[in-house]
Design a protein that fits this description.
This protein is mainly α. The chain has two domains: about 1-90, Rna Polymerase Sigma Factor, Chain: A (Orthogonal Bundle), CATH 1.10.1740; about 95-180, Arc Repressor Mutant, subunit A (Orthogonal Bundle), CATH 1.10.10.10. It is built from ten helices and no strands. It has helices at about 5-10, 15-40, 40-60, 70-85, 95, 110-115, 115-125, 130-140, 145-150, 155-180. Helix 3 (about 40-60) crosses helix 4 (about 70-85) and helix 4 packs across helix 9 (about 145-150). It is globular and about 60 Å long. About 35% of the residues are buried.
Length: about 180
Amino acid sequence: MHLTDETLAGQARSDAEAFAELYRRYAARVYRYHILHTGNIKDAEDLTSQTFLAALDGIGRYRRDGMFAAWLMGIARRQKALFFRSRKPETPLEQAANLPAAQTPVDLVVLQRMTLQQARAAFQLLSPERAEALALCFFAGLSPLEAARVLGKSQAAVKMLISRGLQDLRVRTTLALEVES
């Protein structure tokens, strides 16, 4: 029998196996979100662990409102923010301009298949809000409604951020291809 996330979250308050099932369902999504932002396997693994430890600690505060993925990714986002507040940037913005661009125009399929380095380089050129909306939907696997919950915006606003972020990536990729020609 497949239990819903909300049922498991309720059980996880007193049942370690219920929380373990939630971990199995979401670990890869949380990890992809963190690897996109850190570009480092060790840091992404650490942040994924920290995210789930914080979720376990706060599971009693989860309201069981049908948005477990959004609640968990909100925790992942806060863990990422804490991580970057404690570090200095490793790559100056000047160096980001020299990173390789994608070889084909960016659309949804290409965005999902980009290498991590290309994705990180491209996301660093976007506005923070657009990059975060794309990261939550394409790398963490949230729906626009769930991403809206994490970002504190309406679903329409998140869809607009995604649309404009993809357009920005298309324009930058086209310009990069023209420069290479």
